[in-house]
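Checked the freezer inventory, then went back to the computational side. Two predictions to log before the end of the day. The first one is the construct we discussed on Monday; recording sequence and tokens without edits.
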Amino acid sequence: MSVTAAIDVRGMTKRFGRLTAVDHIDLEVQAGEICGFLGPNGSGKTTFIRMLCGLLRADAGSGTCLGYDVIRESEQIKRRVGYMTQRFSFYEDLSIEENLDFVARMYAIPDRRNAVAASLERLGLAGRRSQLAGTLSGGWKQRLALAACMIHEPKLLLLDEPTAGVDPKARRDFWEEIHQLAAAGLTCLIATHYMDEAERCHRLAYIGYGKLLTQGTVSEVVAQANLTTWEVTGPRLMDLAQRLRSVPGVRQAVPFGNALHVSGDDAALLDRNTQPFRVAPYTWQSAESSLEDVFIHLMDPLSDNARA
């Protein structure tokens, strides 16, 4: 196991009855790295995050988080991790400042008043310190949640879909803040559904129905998929997509803006069997496979573990 990794776990597994929510996942994230944690709803992302920060005990697996054993030293990990849940989980009838003061009390932070003041300034919340949390917009609630995660100066942030429901500017501001924190040495594991956010990460890990499907940099993940993609334009593209999906060698034919992305993992077979469709009024152009193409491709052969 790496001595420089903030997260270094092997075989992490969690079962709920007959359902294996997380199935022998290995993950290594270096200190100061932003790792995008991707996967569809129900894929096990939240369960895995909760095991890392000690809120759930793994049924199998081993490794370390911030140098502490993920099974035996969960209490030490909890005190050094900032965890931002999917849903806003603060007291809506308290002000921003009062919520942060409450979190500081829970962590028994010395000189609590100065810690809260510093947190308000760092996340641009000082001007709204007296505003009730329940009256905040999605973007400001997100800032409050991040401020609360950071108030005890953690070494690792575990963020579970932190930008869900916020506007594009708030998302951009959030990612600017995350990159500044990472540049200062903070490690981040961020669950997200957004492909543009995935491309902002240093590395990616993608799970589907409990299984780790791929990991690496964006370019590595795309290369590992070995997909060939064509971009098709023309009329009645959905009708064309329906016909293409039954063609041997076509793994997916999906809308992509005003075009259709037609992909396969056998370039020669895809080229040969799509030749009859490359006629007017359609235009076919070779295209780079996107992360979205790759992830649809990865999910296609899997079955939902909740239905097993």
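The second is the one RB wanted added to the comparison set:
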Amino acid sequence: MTPPPPAPPLSPGPVPPGSHTPADLLITGCTALTHRPDGEIVFVEDAVIVVRDGVIASVTAAADVAEAAHRPEAPEHIDGRGALALPGLINCHTHTPMAALRGIAEDVPAHTWFNDWIWPIESNLTERTVGLGARLACAEMIRGGVTTFADHYFAMDTVADVAEESGLRAILGQTHFTSQGPQGRAASLDFALRRRGTAGGRVTTSLAPHAPYTVDDTDLAATAALAREHGLLVHIHAAENREQTANSLARHGRTPIEVLERAGLLDVDLLIAHATGLDPARDLPALRRAGGRVAVASAPRGYLKFGWDTTPVRALREAGIPVGLATDGAASNNTLDVWESMTLTALVQKHAENDPTWLTARQALDHATLQSARAVGLGPEIGSLAEGLRADIILVDLSGPHTQPVHDLAATLVHSARSGDVRTTIVDGKVLMRDRELLTLDVPGTVRELGELLPGLVDRSHGGRVQEYEG
């Protein structure tokens, strides 16, 4: 990803007399997680967060405001006493409609999971089941403090409609395979051009070739050319495990990352899902040559389930590659809990590196905020509570027995807090959940309707599948 501009100052300073400009939303009394221009995390006690027109106007310590009367009036005021305000979490890679397949295939290797279960079932998908799965996923993410998600799936117009309905921010890509012929790539482009900037600007789009083993070199090169022509992000699975990398070397003499480089995809803004099978000697130099246009999304829970290695976060960080946090789809991860991904990232990285000093809690929070925003191409817009950025804010209650006492606030957030501690979720200044009550989506109705359709959705008796997994 192209590096974002320096973050705005910690706060604009005291509000001067005469600046009593009305606001849309005022949050007071909370502790706010903010970033200095160098990215260092700073917690501001007794903070006042002012939101106007969906944008953060200021984040100021109450003590810095000369007089309370100088605070702007707002039609909506949230008393944040006892809560911690964070930038909304970002799910950098998921497949929201797969919430309908949660738990459908457990304790099996990846090739069985794909060929015997998921791809046969996905041949039964309808726009209705896609919409219901996406609606369930969006409700889960709102309740878990996720305000932005990057999706990669079929029937993406339906997902875009659900994203708009839910109030979430989304980066959406229509999946395509070479087996679909040129029309697959054309449909991905058509969706990206039609829907980007919709939902009041909350929906941005990407091209979404599935993976180097399902999209051939010609198709990948054509995708890169389209991304370059239209200024689009490309979102793709690559080097998902060591077996894929070994198979790619055997078939093509190149790793999946080298296949992407040869196709020109490392020369455009690129989001790579997983990258657990990187060949450090061959792939890290290629990623460095990309000049900051490539990022990686890491979903550690799924790697643990499939028995894969994990994303080499330390090596990627040292190479200047942003690593954002993700969940993948609920069919493989079972949850869309980015909070859990943050905790697992910190723990798994310590184990993988055999180093308890890595990854620190503050580094994990960095990946959950600024790096995730950069990974999905929205670094200048989200990922921090700062003047001029979109008002994507969550309020977290740390009063529970599992988070008390608080000796180190960063460590408490990463290792003790849970997604269920999120009390309020706000996107573009609009409250989507208040005190754990969802305000935009009907979960009971969604669950009821989806339950009626499940028998037809999971039927595999037809013997078909959308694709063949070869790794």
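For RB: The first helix runs from residue 110 to 122. The CA atoms of residues 107 and 407 lie 39 Å apart. Let me know if you want it refolded.
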